[in-house]
Specification:
- The complex is a heterodimer of chains A (528) and B (332).
- Chain A is mainly alpha-helical and 528 residues long.
- Among the domains of chain A are: 148 residues, no CATH class; 210 residues, no CATH class.
- Helix content of chain A is 68%, strand content 4%.
- In chain A, helix 13 packs antiparallel against helix 16.
- The longest helix of chain A is centred in the last third of the chain and has 71 residues.
- Chain A is elongated.
- The relative contact order of chain A is 0.07.
- In chain B, 44% of the residues are buried.
- A 5-stranded parallel β-sheet of chain B has the order 3-6-9-1-10.
- In chain B, helix 1 crosses helix 2, helix 2 crosses helix 11 and helix 11 crosses helix 12.
- Chain B is an alpha/beta fold and 332 residues long.
- Chain B folds into 2 domains: 210 residues, Rossmann fold; 108 residues, Helicase, Ruva Protein, domain 3, CATH 1.10.8.
- In chain B, strand 4 and strand 5 form a beta hairpin.
- Classes of the chains: A mainly alpha (528), B alpha/beta (332).
- The interface between A and B is medium-sized, with 34 and 30 residues.
Chain lengths: 528, 332
């Protein structure tokens, strides 16, 4: 016959098994609910890494279940009492267990009686492994629901794809800028200022919320770079070329001319050499050189260069070679300065090239975003326009599309109308709807009201419902046919953006055009 | 594990009960539950109120019980003119050695087994004379208190239908009865057997099977039966559930005027212990409490008039609250 402790161990094992099954189902319910919740939220808001977040619910639920299973173990009296009730032992086990340390007149008989009856019962039956049907059904429902959510198209996928494309585009643009920075750093004469500007810009591009915002950081960078260049450099360069041309006709200055043509730095060294050799030159060569310097002086557009050349020419003519040598050394210094300036300009040009490449990348992505949103916005707007027409009693119309359009208007006259709009999307484009998610809207209106008076007319374009050949009603004070603004703005924007893409105009000007149409689009939506 | 032999022989109680039941069954046809409940009350040391229409064998049962127990038996037929002194005794003048003096003349209560037949026919004054005897097992006449013989067992009967000229027992006195047992009408089969046994040439003569000492020993043993804490808690929950201000049952809140007293709890547990022994167990089970709940509580739950109007009985309410009272111990 088993002892009470043996019986308790058997009951504990049986209860642990039964509870494990029960808790496992609890865990499945929790995990299923978590996954379903993540998938539902994923359909309401753009949710990246949803698979990871959904998957993490499974080990968390399992851990919680194991924790609860281990913490909520039934006590020995409870196990005994439950076994009594479930096995029909008439409270023998629980009473015997409770009085296991007692030595009352009947306790011995009680224990023997309890053990005898427990031996004849299958203790495992007290805690059968059983799965709650309701919970099992719930698990099945949650699984089907989650599978359905996972397999059906998710409207937020587009938003996420756009975000990813935006980020990839920004990363590419930032890389282009970084490459330009490396190029500047790797050049013979690195320019720390240019490098700093490029580094800041690539960081801003990377951190910007959208390609459009990233674009806004490029123009200021370009302006900063432009400030690093000297506007007098072309004049100085021209003066240097004129000097080279003038010296090329002299025997003494031919070498210097070639050096200047090769590079200002080499030219500066050659001019210094020439200055040191003035005393050794023949009078004829001096005269020839003085004339060439005078000619170059006359052609020089840079004032300091002109003065130095003029002084050098006059000194040489007067036979003052030391003064002439001093003036030529000044010229050499200006050539050095030109070389430095050219280096800077080269770095700036390289940087601007990089920024322009980044701008093109970002602008292309911004245009793609704007086009997608514009399409959505247009569809929404047409749905709302149809509803407005019906409210006026002019007919029926339905609009279906993606996106949300804000269309408002006051119907004129009497009648009933219905307007339906189906769609999902997020607005924010330059010409389309802005923000929000719309789905299945319908409305019925009747009554009278003031007609919409706020319309923008564009000369030369037909009004809605009329062909281009039809006579177009004229607006107040107008002498040419007018078209609604909303009909033409998109075509105008596209044409303008195409033109800016195809033309060699600065990026900042291109931004200006884009911003102009973007603002127009926002105003149009506000008006609607 | 502690392996030990029982220090008292609980089987003697079972044997006593079985002997009593077997001997009574020779005369009492059927009515096994009635006999079992009466034996439980006897072993528990409680008094019994038997209620049933005339002719069901109430008096026969009590008289038979007096025959099978070698104890003094007294029968008092309660009538409206019965006075307290008629049952507790009185002081009478007598002569001793030429001197006159008051001498106490003991009443019929001075017996081990007292049959109070048709107790509700006596006036409340006389009924209340039983109060002290039943509870304290003493009788006070004048200034002197006298102990009643032990064991002392009152079996009262009352008729529920002939209510004219009767005095319903007050709540305080009802509470003194350990059990109120309803005597049911016998089945057709039992009726035939009753006719065969009692209309023949001779009726069975019962033999004594136990004496007062055996009954007292059984009473002591019964009190030793252990009861687990959660079973005791169940009994307390049952008692609490009979009170309209504590019960979660709508029917109790609506129909019950006053619930069972703590004495009801004592009765429930003690009767449960005796029943456990009679069932061959050494511990009280939920089933024991459920089995004795009706006789133990039916006269301790007082219903509203609305219950009477709706045909609600205490037995029905007790069944309902037993069904709804949680047995499983709380998880810790």
């Amino acid at each position: 016959m088993n002892s009470l402790e043996t019986i308790l161990r058997q009951l504990r094992r049986a209860a642990a098994r039964a509870r494990a099954a029960s808790y496992a189902v609890h865990g499945l319910v929790a995990a299923g609910a978590w996954i379903a919740a993540v998938l539902v939220i994923d359909r309401l808001v753009p949710f990246e890494r949803r698979a990871e977040v959904a998957a993490i619910g499974v080990p968390v639920a399992a851990a919680l279940v194991v924790l609860a299973w281990s913490l909520r173990r039934p006590s020995a009296p409870l196990l005994m009492a439950l076994a009594d009730i479930r096995l029909g032992l008439k409270e023998r086990l629980s009473t015997a267990w409770e009085r296991r340390a007692e030595a009352g007149p009947m306790d011995g008989a009680l224990r023997q009686d309890a053990l005898r009856h427990a031996a004849g019962a299958s203790l495992v039956r007290a805690f059968p492994v059983r799965v709650n049907r309701g919970e099992a059904s719930l698990v099945a429902v949650l699984t089907i629901f989650a599978l359905g959510l996972a397999l059906l198209p998710n409207p937020m996928d587009r938003v996420l794809a756009q975000r990813q494309a935006d980020r990839a585009s920004q990363a590419r643009a930032a890389k282009v800028v970084t490459d330009a920075q490396k190029k500047v750093a790797a050049s013979d004469k690195p320019n720390p200022q240019v490098e700093k500007i490029l580094q800041d810009t690539q960081a801003k591009i990377r951190e910007a919320a959208s390609p459009r915002k990233a674009l806004e950081s490029i123009t200021p960078a370009e302006q900063q770079l432009q400030r690093l260049t000297d506007p007098g450099t072309p004049a100085l360069n021209s003066s240097a070329q004129n000097l080279a041309n003038a010296l090329s006709g002299t025997a003494a200055g031919r070498g210097a001319a070639q050096a200047i043509s090769s590079s200002p730095a080499k030219g500066a060294q050659a001019v210094r050499d020439l200055a040191s050799q003035l005393q050794t030159l023949s009078p004829k060569d001096r005269e020839e050189l003085a004339k060439a310097l005078a000619k170059a002086s006359q052609q020089a557009q840079n004032a300091p260069m002109r003065d130095s050349l003029s002084k050098a020419a006059s000194s040489l003519q007067s036979g003052d070679t030391s003064a002439a040598a001093q003036s030529l050394n000044d010229v050499a210094s200006q050539l050095d300065s030109l070389q430095a300036q050219q280096n800077t300009d080269q770095a700036v040009a390289s940087a601007i090239n990089g920024l322009e490449a980044a701008r093109q990348e970002l602008a292309a992505q911004a245009d793609r975003d704007a086009k997608g949103q514009a399409a959505n916005g247009t569809a929404g707007a047409s749905a709302s326009a149809s509803a407005s027409a019906i409210a006026s009693g002019n007919g029926n119309g339905n609009g279906t599309g993606n996106g949300t359009g804000n269309g408002t208007g006051n119907g004129n006259g009497n009648g009933n109308g219905n307007g339906n709009g189906n769609g999902t999307g997020t607005g924010g484009g330059s010409t389309g709807g802005t923000g929000g998610t719309g789905s299945q809207g319908s409305g019925t209106g009747s009554g009278s009201g003031a007609s919409s008076t706020e319309r923008v007319y564009v000369p030369g374009q037909p009004v809605p419902g009329q062909s281009e050949n039809d006579p177009t009603p004229l607006g107040p004070g107008q002498d040419v046919p007018l078209s609604p603004f909303s009909q033409v703005i998109q075509a105008y924007q596209q044409a303008a953006l195409d033109a800016t893409d195809q033309s060699l105009i600065p990026g900042s000007e291109r931004d200006l055009v884009r911003q102009y149409f973007s603002q127009l689009g926002e105003q149009t939506q506000g008006a609607r | 594990m502690i392996a030990e032999e029982p220090r008292i022989d609980a089987t003697k109680v079972t044997e006593l009960a079985q002997a009593l039941e077997a001997e009574l069954a020779r005369l009492i046809v059927g009515q096994k539950e009635l006999v079992r409940d009466t034996v439980i009350a006897l072993i528990a040391g409680g008094h019994v109120l038997l209620e049933g229409v005339p002719g069901l064998g109430k008096t026969v049962l009590v008289r038979s019980l007096g025959q099978v127990l070698s104890m003094s038996f007294a029968r008092v037929q309660f009538t409206p003119d019965l006075m307290p002194a008629d049952i507790v005794g009185t002081n009478v003048i007598g002569e001793t050695d030429g001197r006159r003096e008051f001498r106490y003349q003991a009443g019929p209560l001075f017996a081990n087994l007292v049959l109070a037949d048709e107790i509700n026919r006596a006036t409340p004054k006389t009924q209340s004379a039983l109060l002290e005897a039943m509870q304290e097992r003493t009788v006070t006449v004048g200034t002197q208190t006298r102990s009643l013989p032990s064991p002392f067992f009152v079996l009262a009967t009352q008729n529920p239908i002939e209510l004219e000229g009767t005095y319903p027992l007050p709540e305080a006195q009802l509470d003194r009865f350990f059990f109120k047992i309803l005597v049911p009408f016998p089945s057709e089969h039992d009726l035939l057997e009753i006719a065969r046994r009692t209309t023949g040439e001779s009726t069975p003569q019962l033999e004594p099977v136990a004496d007062g000492g055996a009954v007292l020993a059984a009473q002591r043993i019964a009190r030793e039966v252990p009861i687990a804490e959660h079973v005791l808690a169940y009994a307390a929950r049952v008692i609490a559930a009979t009170h309209p201000d504590r019960s979660e049952l709508d029917s109790v809140r609506r129909y019950v005027r006053w619930g069972a007293s703590p004495r009801g709890m004592q009765t429930l547990v003690l009767a449960g212990k005796v029943r456990a022994l009679l069932e061959g167990r050494y511990n009280v089970a939920f089933d024991d409490l459920n089995a004795v709940a009706r006789p133990a509580l039916r006269h301790r739950i007082f219903l509203q008039f609305e219950a009477e109007a709706d045909g609600i009985t205490t037995d029905r309410l007790i069944s309902e609250l037993l069904e709804h009272t949680v047995k499983e111990p709380a998880r810790d």
